[in-house]
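Class, carefully examine what follows:
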Amino acid sequence: MYFFLSNLSMADIGFISTTVPKMLVNIQTQNKSITYAGCLTQVSFSYLFGCLDSLLLTVMAYDRFVAICHPLHYTVIMNPRLCGLLVLLSFFISLLNSQLNLSMVSQLTFCTDVKIPHFFCDPPQLLNLACSDTSTNTILLYCTGAIVGGVPVSGVLFSYTQIALSIWRISSSCGKYKAFSTCGSHLSVICLFYGTGIGVYLSSVISPSARKGAVASVVYTVATPMLNPFIYSLRNRDIKRALKRILRRST
């Protein structure tokens, strides 16, 4: 679990570094312009680290599934070699997805003084602003989004369905609590990340609203990576004791 957490932390650092520094500079200087090369760079890295986040959360769901449903075989199944291969595979899939989206956006033509109703260069927003025909690009964007987003979500749902069935079969309440606490932090992060991420892209199809989409995007691009260390730290007993001491002093 901690091996995957370290890789998730690095992906979160890369994900948040793609958008937040530029956003802070825009707020400080009151200059919201971005170069064409800078926009393409944001598209590439945001899709790389965003997809990597999604795949690592899926791998962690599988790790929790093995830990709860097959505890006696955990060390055999989740050996260091398999863990390393899963992280490498996640990285290469994310890299392929980012390069595919980058090549798609780089083929678009834009008029001068284009205003993006977002705090970073998001391909769905760029497609709406392009002067060239975007029908093929739109189909490709939603197909890759369905594959890269749908497969991990299906994997997470399958893992947690099996976990829920295993917890239901546990007779003691103490055993149920222990099993649930094993995956409680991960489940919280998944709800934040996938809930807001899927909500943004579904709302853009049903009822496009640039302001609502930008606000929801802040949650999965900024808030979730910031909350991840805090959520997972609550599993640590020392952190819990320190937090209780701080709360007692404040009260």
Notes: The mean pLDDT is 81. Residues 2-109+133-250 form a domain with the Rhopdopsin 7-helix transmembrane proteins fold (CATH 1.20.1070.10). Residues 3 and 83 are 8 Å apart (CA to CA). The two ends are 35 Å apart (CA to CA).
